[in-house]
Amino acid sequence: MDTLQDSVKDSISKFMAHVHISVNEMSRLYLSNERRYNYTTPKSFLEQIKLYQNLLLKKDRDLKVKMERLENGLEKLKSTSAQVDELKAKLAAQEVELKQKNEDADKLIQVVGVETEKVSRKKAVADEEEKKVALITQEVEQKQKDCEEDLAKAEPALAAAQAALNTLNKTNLTELRSFGSPPSAVSNVTAAVMVLTAPGGKIPKDRSWKAAKVAMARVDGFLDSLIKFNKENIHENCLKALQPYLQDPKFNPEFVATKSSAAAGLCSWVLNIVRFHHVFCEVQPKRQALDRANAELAAAQDKLATVKAKIARLNENLGKLTARFEKATSDKLQCQQEAAATACTITLANRLVGGLASENVRWAEAVKDFKQQQSTLCGDVLLITAFISYLGYFTRKYRQDLLDGIWRPYLHQLEVPIPVTPCLEPLSMLADDAAVAAWRNQGLPADRTSTENATILSSCERWPLMVDPQLQGSKWIKSSHGEALRVIRVGQKGYLDTLEQALAAGDLVLIENLEESVDPVLGPLLGRETIKKGRYIRIGDKECALHPAFRLILHTKLANPHFQPELQAQCTLINFSVTRHGLEEQLLAAVVRMERPDLEELKSDLTKQQNGFKITLKTLEDNLLSRLSSASGNFLGDTELVENLETTKRTAAEIVEKVQQFRVTEARINEAREHYRPAASRAALLYFTMNELHTIHPMYQFSLKAFHTVFQKAIERAAAAESLAGRVLSLMDSITFCIFQYTARGLFERDKLTFSAQLTFQILLMNKEINPAELDFLLRYPAQPGVTSPVEFLSDHSWGGIKALSSMEEFRNLDRDIEGSAKRWKKFVESECPEKERFPQDWKNKSALQRLCIMRALRPDRVPCAIRDFVEEKLGSKYVVGRPLDFATTFEESGPATPMFFILSPGVDPLKDVEKHGKKLGYTFNHGNLHNVSLGQGQEVVAEGALDVAAQEGHWVILQNIHLVAKWLSSLEKKLEQHSQGSHRDFRVFVSAEPAPCPESHIIPQGILENSIKITSEAPTGIHANLHKALDNFSQDTLEMCSQEKEFRSILFTLCYFHAVVAERRKFGPQGWNRSYPFSTGDLTISVNVLYNYLEASSKVPYDDLRYLVGEIMYGGHITDDWDRRLCRTYLEEFIKPEMMEGELCLAPGFPLPGNMDYNGYHKYIDDALPPESPYLYGLHPNAEIGFLTQRSERLLRTVLELQPRDSSTGPGAVGSQEEMVQALLEEMLEKLTDEFNMAELMAKVEERTPYAVVALQECERMNVLTAEIRRSLAELELGLKGELTMTSDMEALQNSLFLDTVPESWLKRSYPSTASLGSWFADLLARISELEAWTRDFSLPSTLWLGGFFNPQSILTAVMQSTARKNKWPLDKMTLQCDVTKKSREDFASAPREGAYVHGLFMEGARWDTQAGTITDARLKELTSAMPVVFIKAIPDDKQDTRGLYPCPLYKTRQRGPTYVWTFNLKTKESPSKWVLAGVALLLQT
To answer: pTM above 0.85?
Structure first.
């Protein structure tokens, strides 16, 4: 902070505060428009200051280093130019010296030449002599070799002779001598020895044994003479005399050995000595020749030595001369090199100066820029600090709005402006082109938002927390860090140990898939709560060493997490969610890759090449600057430096040229790619439409990965076309339909039209084919309140819609036309299917959407059908014809990583399809390759085991009802993810689960849902399908099993019809059943078993018993509401009665109970005789269907409205952004809301606290509570919208409700039940207040009471009884209310009755009151709720009540009925009360 001037410090602190506040405001907008929670806390503000300090210091240091390097480089270039002149003078002196040295060397070379000649001559003589010596030497060596070889041959004989001698010793020789008369073989041996050893060749004549014994007399001497025998010189005579012995075959050591071992040894010696002598005699001449040759060699060598001595003397002399010459030459060379080096240095210097001429200019500019940057550094860093600290979680639009729309202008408005670079690009300060290029090569998406995210992630000081539902961010992180990254998940086995090791080693850790609430054990790490001077951190109960280099990245794949403010303060949230633009670019690349692989490959290669060029240029420039900066002393001789410079220049020039080529090629490629953009744009729209469906139901989760797969298959399936434009249209059609089909099969029937409608509207909006204001009207229906319809065929609410439409330019005079041509419009409105009819007058020429808007006002019940026609018109019939996909076709899309997920509905078993298809492919339970695990207590281990085996062996696993094991689901998610890679390719998983009844209780993990193919299985709808389905539970055998066959069959069929009616009646909402009940086929089958048992046990049919058991126990066991119990009882009273056996019973108008038939006959009877689906089949009036369809229509349009983007005005004439609308509505409400009732004043005004006065005071108190809450919450929201308060979730909920025109939850809690929209509810509230104001003026009972205007209508009815009881002194508990319907309206009464009260504001649903006849009668068609005349309520004793000809009619506060029950009024009827029970007739206080 020392670098900052004091004058700007104040401005900086103001700007920081402004940033913090503006982010708070933008977070509110972000919450209301995008429904994302982004918090700021005081800690966020402190972190901003800390980051600013650190960044400012770092950037200042970096800037100084860069400037220093560039200035150093420039200095070196400057000094180079000055040195060139000095070098030239030095070179001239070196050239003179070189000339002198050349002359000296030339003189010396002549002398050396003469001496060399002498040596050469002598050397020639010596060479001749040397050749001679060499030849002689060769000859001597050969002769010596021959001698040695021959002698070697004699060696074995000599060795054998020696061995033979060794066998002789004194003992055996003495033994030999002792022989008296030896065998001839022995005596021959001794004779031979005497011959061989005869001295001088004198052969002894006496060689007898005796002579031999004498010779051996001295044994030692004899042995010694043999050992020393001169074997080389044996006399010729001896050898001759020896021949006869040698030729004797018995002269053989082996033979002789048999006689005497000593004689054998002597025999062997003689033989071997003779053998040796023969060889030796052959060698002797050769040895003599060798001696002569050696003598000759010695003489030649002497002569050679003399010659060599002479040469040595000559060489010594020559050596001295040569040394002198070499020194002269070396001096000359050195001088030459110095001159060359100087010349080279001059050349290098010129190359350096010339080569860096452009750098000289560029670097000088850069230094100037850096100095400029230094002057604006405090402001620039301030902006990028705010950018890093606060913008990570916002999407592109909000980032832009904050940066350019709020922060930059504020910088210039300050009293002391903070210097800042105009149009500063935050990215350029945080990451250069080379870094961005490297990120993209590592897999970061190429859109700007992703680059900003990566920049924030690499620059922030708090731990980054990536919100990454499509896993694009985590994929990039893993790719960029590779093996150096440790990836863990909270809760996985040993994750804390891994974290502890990483903390100590200073590793980078990625914690994946965080939930909204983070494990408290990580709290100290997230908050960086270090201990022991920052060297340790506590994880759980352990103190872990903390390495300064340790870094942590957190990651969640939740699409829209709500992280608590304290976690957001500890981390930098970064929104890596794919953007529409980013996805469009990715999909464009994918479609072009498949359609034009040549183009996409070229584009991809060029992009990578470009990224590579940026990195190379940066590296080269850095290296050059680094070498220049570090070059010290005489760096001009650094050839490598200059060559490096030239390489840089050359490469840079090549790159610039290639960049130019790339731009041309890229423009050409982009032009070709752009043709396919409509397809990519459509696909991106589809993904975001599909991705929003989770707001309808949490089961509707889809991953980007799965979307990509469907997208690619759609491209492959697209029909061929002749032209490119035709092909693109074909692609769009295929992509739209494939994604529609993929999504729709996982949606409930009720949501399919919602999806197709939203899809159609979004496509038309993108193509600018519809007016957003008209769509807004259709969805929101902002009807004008307080108008009265001038035509009898339209309700006031419908007319309010017509008036609102007429105020729009396109619908001008619609109201006048309807009034003017009422007859034509009446016919149109009252037609059966007005959406199929032509609109009257010129309105038939309006666009499809405009006709829908009119239909919305005239016949809201027909809007779903009209929307279906609209979708068909705009997209095609295949988007509305719900053909179920064949299981086998869907199965083909599954895989080891793509399980099939069946979303269950009551009474449907989709897993039969799996078993059936498995059987075809050879997967059955018997084969052991199909595992079926029904989840429940203790089955988790079995399921895990089955999954492990199946993944390895390629089996199928069915996991049923996984919703029953909530705690195990995260383990299942991990297990499925683990087996998604590396498993057997035939491995398949089929999962089933029931959807949660409400979003809060949804437990199925996102990971399982996203990656699965979702299939909804729903029970058939309509009486026809349900009746067949009920009958399917039985067979011909069932029909034949009872002895009372006719009775059994008739009642069984009746029970089937009863089951179909009660099950299907719930579609009519509260008019069908007050509450929803889970009637199942089990109830039906048990009822039939009871029937069988009773009929078998009794000859008469026990009708009463059967009705009681079925109505009160089997089906009644589910029923919790008394009126529903009455309805169930009434159905059975109408269906199961004696008349059924007489053929007089009709189960429904036009559907008589069939007679005695077989099983197939009943099915055929249903097909032939059952009338088409209509409310009559249930005993209801046709209006019930209109009511049900109207509610369905409201729900459909409300859902589509909630799916609409909320971030901008919806077009010309539209109502603006959410915040503007809410602000206007809020101000209007606060203005209209009256002051609270002054309770003290009212109390004082009451003279007598009559029951009526008490009710009035209670109502005022309740109204005060409600209006106080309305005022408080609206005032709080107003402050929030102004930015004076932090937006809370309650404020956000209120804002949402105001925008969606629904009554806020906090108001409803303190209010009365109501189904009205907020506009109608508020108008109704003001009417209630004015009614109360009128009553409390004097507390006299009004002439007629508006019963619907009470918080607690029971209180006023009880007050009527209390007043009468007090007056007549009757016991209160023995009294009841009598209800007489008058023929008058409210205006006809001027005063209250003396007893009881007149009440107005009642409506009848399901029938109407015939004022003239004074009874209940059938409702008029399309009049859903008819107003009742004024009713006179009076109290009478119980015993005076006449119940004949009366229908006990329940009174409810709203059409929701059920818990809003008020009282029972007995109304006169001429027809059977059961008719009105089945028709669901009730009185309502609100329509």
So the answer is: no
